[in-house]
Write a structure and sequence with these properties.
Length: about 240
């Protein structure tokens, strides 16, 4: 039996990443793959990079990872709060952190007990595409042209998903570190959790499990307030 933990979209929340890694270790899972958006937006960008780098696991580049290795897109420079957060996050990183981000590819392939899995952030063609349960098949045909893997996994939308398409499975593990950012402020109050997924292969059978891991909300908020993150109360409001 082979088991793969699929983790994505930490967004600088090293406290949440530690929570997920403790769950993975408790379950004795063999391997981890990380699907991008590692450092931007949260209180501990450098620590998030350091923790993932120490795992030496396959990982891909996310769209917000590029904010630390390329100029910030002009459309975001017009948002003063976002600009402050990214500027501060950049100040927390050193050249080794940026070198790690620059080393990340757009896609990786993993062999899990004889099954090839293609991993990416948004699609194999781009880290900015959006895949939802109702995304038109014509878009999927374009984005996955030339990709033959039976299991296709990406993040980006912060929404867990399992979708059948052309005899294959499209999967999204959700967000480990910012699972409610796409919801109205305050929507996360009833369920502060980390999201990830586990893929198990045994005797030719594939099983997919979605995980919701409870967070120590008070501990995470206290850590965020000590971090120096600009506009930290806006970040906290996503969870409360």
């Amino acid at each position: 039996m082979a088991r793969l933990a699929v983790v994505s979209d930490i967004h600088g929340n090293a406290f949440a990443l530690d929570t997920v890694l403790a769950s993975i270790e408790h379950d004795g899972i063999d391997q981890i793959v990380y699907l991008g958006d590692l450092a931007e937006g949260g209180p501990r960008p450098a620590e998030a990079i350091e923790r993932l780098a120490a795992l030496n696991c396959p990982a891909v580049l996310g769209n917000t990872d590029d904010y630390f290795i390329k100029p910030l897109p002009e459309k975001f420079q017009k948002d003063p709060e976002w600009r402050d957060v990214v500027t501060w996050g950049n100040e927390q990183l050193n050249e080794s952190h940026r070198a790690f981000l620059r080393s990340l590819p757009l896609t990786v392939e993993i062999d899990l007990d004889g099954e090839t899995i293609t991993c990416y952030h948004a699609s194999p063609k781009s880290y900015g595409d959006l895949i939802f349960p109702d995304t038109p098949e014509s878009d999927l045909e374009t984005w996955f042209a030339g990709v033959d893997s039976p299991l296709l996994i990406g993040g980006h939308t912060h929404q867990q998903m399992l979708r059948r398409w052309n005899g294959r499975l499209l999967m999204n593990p959700g967000s480990a570190g910012r699972s409610f950012h796409h919801l109205p402020i305050g929507s996360g109050s009833a369920r502060p959790w980390c999201e990830y997924a586990v893929i198990t292969r045994e005797n030719g059978e594939t099983r997919v499990e979605f995980r919701h891991i409870p967070l120590d909300l008070d501990g995470m908020i206290a850590d965020a307030r000590k971090s120096g993150l600009p506009h930290v109360e806006s970040w906290i409001a996503e969870w409360t």
